[in-house]
Design a protein that fits this description.
Length: 870
């Protein structure tokens, strides 16, 4: 009998492992569908809990009197069916995605996301229903072996903990589809083991007393459903909150599931030795207080995570996972003990007869709690307040079985404990790099938490989920952001319609205003970013929000449902390592963009080079070249532009002639000088890097078989982004000056200008490589050579001016005053903010009102948000 017990526990623990592995994999799959990680989490978990609850209640009601053998055989058959269903889902999802998009073309974004969510729940519900149906049946087999609910519930939860982290190791090595096959194969082995165990179990029905078991009172089931809702609210909110200060969302979810299920497992096992009547008083208080107490540690955790260094993703997961364990394990231990204690309170020592009812009610409540937390509570009251509400609900529902009224005194104490943590801490308390900032804007919804932080110098930073600095009002950052619009529009002879895929602060889109296009559209998923661009970044984006059409939508959905075509489409920078974001660099996405271009149209997708290792960058470039035949690359600083054309080719001389002709046209409302940012058209054409080689043997980034999303998280922690090596690799396939001139069709009379610009840009790269190696003297020499080749190139101007300005703190050049040194810096780089600030201070020291007014205007032109302007 001991051997039989062990085999049954192994089989049921293995089934728990496969169930949670499916959940994580399906979460990733739905994140690809939604393009937003938290939606995948919410709808997958909701589908799972609803199915588990409905299945458990259904089996408890309909399968009374089944023999242990029949019960376990049914469990095994259900496991076979779940495996088959799991294998079919990845095959069907692309078709389902297409059908959902076509069906929901007339819906608003919120309606479409709800429609997708309902469809997702319905898709995953059958498998989850089968899993829930198996729980009461497995308990019948367990009774025949002398096992109780604590044993089965505990080992299933511990198995689930192991299964929850398995996909983190499977996905990078095997991808989504093959990972599902691995899990399905393991689940099939567990089902076969269950069939073997079933053969040794009694074939006759259960004793007659089982048939007389009645459903627990409805009010008690409702209270335990409330506890389930609160418990899963905590899981979703922990995923959101810890996902902002620690690892990415799906990693936090996996670690939380591990901790949650380890806690539930051990809590369930430990419950065998707890006195039910006394602990039903203690559990609500413990769970609520511990849930709230963890929030007090959030600033310290965030500060530690941002200062700590890790050599690998595995090390980061272990260290940060341990922190999550310390904060959440005590709560999950309490939640794990609740079911066995409650079942024993109603059934006596065994606690197995009504367990299916309790489990079902709790799971259904959990499904509602997940949806409420992710879709209602967070958008309306924020993550921090939602967690407070969850803790309060946990205590109130748990007090249903209170037998000592003195414990109600814990409620006002809990309210006092909750008050200081009802809101997220200020960003300055969470991020060491922004210790001098103050929050001036906060917007929370189901997509992201958006902050705008103002620093002591007046500059503002846009943060998405704290970890991602999306944009800044710093003058250098503003120039670089505007350049992301300048290059694409300069490469088109007459851009009348422009589409921006992503808005951010609106600064990039404002770079198009100088071209005076007839129609300008920006698509942005984050409503927080849209509001921030309209308000807090208005001074630096030239009021662009009143001059363009902004569409609140998912970019992929917009491109599918929009029938308009555009002369220029610009793909803004984003963080490709986030779940679902890599889809914006997939073959299918590039095809959708190409289909929205006019003949002669230009598409430019920007990439931040410091976000990629060589292998991942090769995948993206190769994928782009699969869609655009004449794909090429331009480089502006550490930003790479993939340029694709539709039924046209780049002609540098024609583009230059067009820009020159605009200066003499009275009907042109734009600003030709601002179109190039003062650098001239040939500086931009000189940043041409070359065509994308077709000799790389790499995978293609596919929406449903992504590559870079599994590699880039490791790049961040494994320190595989060696920028010096990346530049060396890029130089290995850079076109020569002659090849570049031929590719851009530079006319003979224009070759001298192009060659100087090309040489200057090539020297810029040597400058950056020297900086990376810490070779300051060599870097300065390269900067001087680059400036000599092309005096309009801002990169060497800035490099020289910055070094001259920094040197003033140590010594002033012989024969020059401090003010003369500043004037010399401004002669090299007229927009140098530091030098302008110092000139303003010099004027104030002299009380020269005319000079103060002059330098205030110069500072405003360069940096409208500078604190001196206030």
């Amino acid at each position: 009998m001991t051997c039989l017990k062990s085999l049954l526990l192994i089989a049921y623990g293995g089934m728990g492992a496969s169930a949670l592995a499916y959940e994580i994999l399906w979460t990733r799959m739905l994140s690809l569908l939604f393009g937003v990680g938290i939606f995948g989490v919410v709808f997958t978990v909701a589908a799972f809990m609803a199915g588990l609850g409905a299945g458990s209640l259904l089996a408890s009601r309909c399968c009374t009197g089944w023999s242990p053998r029949r019960s376990l055989q049914t469990v095994a058959i259900l496991e076979f069916g779940i495996a088959a269903y799991a294998l079919m889902l990845p095959i069907c999802m692309p078709a389902i995605d297409g059908w959902l998009t076509e069906t929901g073309t007339t819906l608003t974004l919120a309606q479409w996301q709800s429609f997708q969510g309902v469809a997702s729940i319905l898709i995953l519900f059958p498998a989850a229903l089968a899993m829930g149906f198996a729980f009461p049946l497995a308990l019948r087999a367990a009774r025949a072996c002398g096992l109780g609910v604590s044993d089965m519930y505990g080992v299933n939860a511990l198995g689930g903990a192991m299964g929850g982290i398995a996909p983190l190791f499977l996905l990078p090595g095997f991808g989504l589809n093959d990972s599902v096959w691995c899990v399905a194969a393991f689940a099939t082995l567990m089902a076969i083991l269950a069939l073997l165990v079933a053969r040794a179990l009694p074939a006759e029905g259960e004793v007659s007393t089982q048939s007389t078991v009645q459903r627990p009172p409805f009010i008690d089931l409702l209270a335990y459903a409330g506890i389930g809702a609160a418990a899963l609210m905590l899981e979703i909110l922990w995923t959101r909150i810890y996902g902002m200060v620690l690892l990415r969302t799906e990693y936090v979810l996996a670690v939380l599931l591990l901790v949650y299920l380890v806690g539930v497992g051990f809590g369930s096992i430990a419950a065998k030795w707890l006195k039910a009547s006394w602990w039903l008083n203690i559990l609500p208080v413990l769970a609520a207080v511990l849930a709230v107490a963890g929030q007090y540690l959030l600033p310290s955790i965030s500060q530690w995570a941002n200062r700590a260094t890790f050599d690998s993703l595995a090390q980061a997961m272990l260290a940060q996972g341990f922190v999550i364990l310390l904060c959440t394990l005590p709560v999950t231990l309490v939640l794990g003990a609740w079911l066995p204690v409650l079942a024993r309170h109603f059934d006596g020592t065994s606690g197995t007869q009504s367990c299916g009812w309790w489990y079902g009610a709790n799971s259904l409540g959990a499904a509602l709690g997940v949806l409420f937390a992710g879709l209602i509570a967070v958008p309306f009251i924020g993550a921090a307040m939602s967690l407070v509400v969850a803790a309060l609900l946990l205590m109130i529902c748990g007090f249903r079985w209170l037998n000592n009224v003195r414990f109600w005194l814990a409620l006002p104490c809990l309210l006092l404990l909750m008050w200081p943590v009802k809101q997220l801490p200020a960003v300055s308390a969470l991020l060491p790099s922004l210790h001098d900032g103050r929050d001036i804007f906060l917007y929370e919804d189901a997509v992201a938490t958006t902050h705008v932080v103002e620093r002591d110098n007046g500059q503002r930073v846009l943060l998405s989920d704290l970890q991602r600095m999306d944009a800044s009002s710093d003058p250098t950052a503003v120039i670089v952001q505007k350049n992301q619009a300048r290059l694409p529009l300069l490469l088109h002879a007459d851009p009348k319609s422009v589409l921006f895929l992503g808005l951010g602060t609106g600064v990039t889109a404002s770079g198009a205003l100088a071209f005076s296009p007839e129609r300008c559209v920006a698509v942005e998923l984050s409503l927080g970013a849209i509001q921030a661009a309209s308000d807090t970044f208005y001074p630096v984006n030239n009021g662009v929000m009143q001059k363009i059409d902004v569409v609140h939508d998912d970019v992929r959905r917009f491109l599918r449902r929009d029938n308009a075509r555009y002369d220029v489409i610009v793909g803004d920078l984003f963080h490709p390592d986030m779940v679902g974001r890599g889809n914006l660099l997939s073959r299918q996405e590039f095809e959708r963009v190409r289909n929205r271009l006019h003949e002669g149209g230009i598409f430019v997708q920007w990439l931040a080079l410091n976000q990629f290792d060589i292998a991942s960058l090769q995948v993206v470039l190769h994928t782009f070249a699969q869609v655009f035949d004449d794909a090429s690359v331009f480089v502006d600083g550490y930003r790479l532009a993939m340029v694709g054309t539709y039924k046209t080719s780049l002609n540098a001389s024609a583009l230059s002639a067009h820009i020159q002709s605009l200066a003499g046209r009275n009907d042109f409302a734009g600003n030709p000088d601002d179109m190039t940012g003062g650098e001239g058209i040939w500086t931009w054409l000189g940043r041409y890097w070359g065509g994308i080689p077709d000799t790389w043997e790499v995978k293609t980034q596919d929406e449903w078989s992504p590559v870079i999303e599994y590699a880039l998280p490791r790049v961040r922690y494994d320190q595989s982004v060696d920028m010096h090596s990346l530049w060396q690799w890029m130089l290995s396939w850079k076109d020569s000056m002659t090849q570049a001139g031929d590719a851009l069709h530079v006319a003979p009379q224009d070759l001298p200008q192009f060659q100087r610009a090309w040489a200057g840009s090539a020297i810029d790269v040597r400058l950056w490589m020297a900086e990376l190696k810490g070779q300051e003297d060599q870097a300065l020499e390269w900067a001087r050579l680059a400036l000599k080749a092309n005096a309009l190139d801002r990169w060497p101007r800035t490099a020289i001016a910055d070094r001259m300005f920094d040197s003033l703190h140590n010594n002033i050049p012989d024969g020059m005053s401090y003010e003369q040194a500043l004037v010399k810096i401004l002669a090299i780089e007229p927009g140098h903010e530091g030098a302008i600030r110092q000139m303003l201070q010099q004027s104030r020291d002299k009380d020269d009102q005319q000079a103060i007014k002059l330098w205030m205007q110069r500072l405003h032109d360069v940096s409208p948000l500078a604190i001196e302007q206030r």
